[in-house]
Write a structure and sequence with these properties.
2 domains, about 425 residues, 13 helices, TIM Barrel, binds flavin mononucleotide, about 15% strand, 8-stranded parallel beta barrel, alpha/beta
Length: about 425
């Protein structure tokens, strides 16, 4: 199977072509370090056999906070906490990279540090609703350096590479690349491919200079912004070779732009499976580095066919690995019917919008997601006969876990069907 074949991104050798997408969880500590809960969540995916794990947004500046409990590598003091994460995951044969970001107009710096968010041109944060001011050209040097130092820290913390977030007309690099948010008339505007990519090219070149030419960079980009006035697939393909020249080792093709409910980035069933594929193919035609694609690869057979047809080199999965961290192992074992499938209910992302309440990510079909620290499927000391009353989702999950632990189960249901409110 193509999905199981190894592949290299620059110097990083991957055991297979299945990649975990970056997903902000809000499992981090208040001080922006990875928590034991986050490590346990990622560890479960590492054990599940995925080849490359992209850790969620990790900011380049401590004061540019993205979410209440997201991560930073904006200062050397954060390196040891990230080292704990990489050491834990590297026990399993997996590669790991953080998603390096300056949140730009999506920064919560206003809430936390009283500093106005920044953007290529004055705008309002799509998710925060906060005003952001236009960056002065002189400020860009500091931002380029922050990216480079963050990449260096990522390497020192034991990561195998980085993903640069420049997608979704979101964050800082994504907004600089898009005419929808970048209205500048100077050398960093969007009027030519060189101007449009100028900041990103500087960031890429400086990262290579500081973190090393052999430290792989994956670039996450929207192939097609899907909004009138935004970049289409041809526009993105036109800049892709410039970005490879500047140091990109692989492309990660997403699509769409940010909106308050991020419904274009994390698409529901109204979008077809593999909805970013045409844009990924357009980029693949013009570059000679690996191209990975994300977006509703819920069915491993479709993912395999995508690789067989050479439409992409790697498949990135977000929600499918929340629903079933063992998906890659089950693919390898040919046990596709045992995969617990994501149903695109969007509960994972909706649960993130409860801030300032307990806005932590959870999964409607996998109650263990985010609770890995406290999982206990070990055989029970004393085997019992457990009677579960009610075969709705909760009763069935209780019965399943009790069964895994070795108890004898009787499941009682008054209706003629199992599944309760799920049916
Ligand atoms: C809970 C959640 C959090 C996400 N956080 C991020 C993020 O921090 N950075 C990012 O670029 N994309 C983020 N995404 C988008 C995913 O990386 C991915 O592009 C999207 O879920 C579509 O892939 P899928 O159909 O395999 O889930 C997030 C998605 C989810 C569901």
């Amino acid at each position: 199977m193509k999905l199981l074949e190894p592949l290299s991104i620059g110097s990083m050798r991957l055991k297979n072509r299945m990649v975990m997408a970056p997903m902000t969880t809000n499992y981090g500590n208040e001080d922006q370090t990875p928590s034991d809960r986050l490590i346990a969540f990622l560890l479960e995916r590492a054990k599940g056999g995925v080849g490359l794990i992209t850790v969620e947004v990790c900011t380049v500046d401590v004061k540019q906070k993205y979410q209440p409990q997201s991560l930073t590598l904006g200062s050397d003091e954060f390196i040891p906490a990230h080292r704990k994460l990489t050491d834990a995951l590297h026990q399993y044969d997996v590669k790991i990279q953080p998603q390096i970001t300056h949140p730009g107009p999506e920064s919560m710096s206003g809430f936390y540090f009283g500093e106005m968010p920044v953007a290529p041109s004055a705008t309002t944060g799509a998710c925060t609703g906060l005003p952001a001011r236009e960056l002065d050209i002189a400020e860009l040097d500091g931002i380029v350096e922050a990216y480079a130092q963050t990449a260096r820290r990522a390497r020192e913390a034991g990561y195998d590479g980085i993903e640069l977030h420049a997608a979704h007309c979101y964050m800082l690099l994504g907004t600089f690349l898009s005419p929808l948010k970048n209205k500048r008339m100077d050398a960093y505007g969007t009027d030519t491919p060189e101007n449009r990519t100028r900041l990103l090219v500087r960031v890429l070149q400086r990262i290579k200079a500081v973190a090393g030419t052999d430290f792989p960079i994956t670039l996450r980009i929207s192939g097609f912004e899907r909004i009138p006035g935004g970049r289409d697939a041809a526009d993105t393909a036109a800049i892709a070779p410039l970005l490879v020249d500047a140091g990109v080792d692989a492309f990660h093709v997403s699509g769409g732009v940010s909106d308050p409910m991020v419904s274009q980035m994390i698409c529901g069933p109204e979008y077809p499976d593999g909805y970013n594929l045409p844009a990924a193919e357009a980029i693949k035609r013009v570059v000679d580095v690996p191209v990975m694609v994300v977006g509703r690869f819920l069915d491993p057979e479709f993912a395999e066919q995508t690789l067989q047809d050479k439409r992409a080199d790697m498949i990135v999965m977000g929600r499918p690995l929340l629903a079933d961290p063992q998906l890659p192992n089950k693919v390898a074992a040919g046990k596709l019917e045992e995969i617990r499938r994501c149903i695109s209910c969007q509960n994972c992302i909706d649960s993130m919008f409860l801030w300032p309440m307990d806005a932590r990510m959870n999964c409607a079909v996998n109650p263990a997601t985010g609770r890995e620290q406290h999982l206990n499927y070990a055989p029970a000391a004393q085997q019992k006969h457990v009677v579960v009353i009610g075969a709705g989702p909760a009763g069935m999950e209780a019965a399943r876990v009790a069964c895994e632990r070795g108890h004898r189960i009787t499941l009682l249901e008054k209706s003629r069907r199992l599944g309760g409110s799920l049916t």
